[in-house]
GNAT family N-acetyltransferase (Paenibacillus mellifer), 210 residues
Amino acid sequence: MEHQKTYIRHTLPHQNREIVVEGPVSPSHLQTLKMHPDLDAFRKPADQHAALVEIAGLPEGRIILAREDSTIVGYVTFHYPDEMERWSQGHMPDLIELGAVEVADDYRSLGLGSKMIRTAFEDGQMEKYIVFTTEYYWHWDLKKSGLSVWDYRTMMERLMKTVDMVWYATDDPEICSHPANCLMVRIGKEVPLSSEEQFDRIRFQQRFMY
């Protein structure tokens, strides 16, 4: 399918300077930028930068970022689900994963997470997709945030609800392995019923769960 990508740019004032929230960005633009050293939740900043460049080059890949001058201080990734996970079963062309969301420590009180996610959904860019995210407590920065696992879960749910993502049930073993884990989903207005039904079959694979 054709993946519509409309570049959008916002500026936010910050301490007599400005933060740019923009995307989807191109690999070439990403290569002109550097990662903030605190962006190390998933891998070393340099390695994560290389991963962002790779995702931005995918037909379906989208990187929305926040930057101060040429320094990336936050990012959100969108891409097809990993082929090792159940969500890739059926190779649905209209099923997109909201993958990583990360904001550097000193910028976490500015609402950049929600601003980046909302930017991704502007101009109806995601109406043809089922967008999902899997929230696992072991990915959460509980130590630096000082939040309990349940407070962090509430914060993540609130973040995803800014673009009308809602909790969905599933029998996926990883999500079911801890009650704080969850699946959140947004079904675009242009998604056909056949895709919704296929996604339901992926969500539930144990008959007794129906």
About this structure: The beta strands are 8-14, 17-23, 34-35, 62-68, 71-79, 95-103, 130-135, 166-168, 182-187.
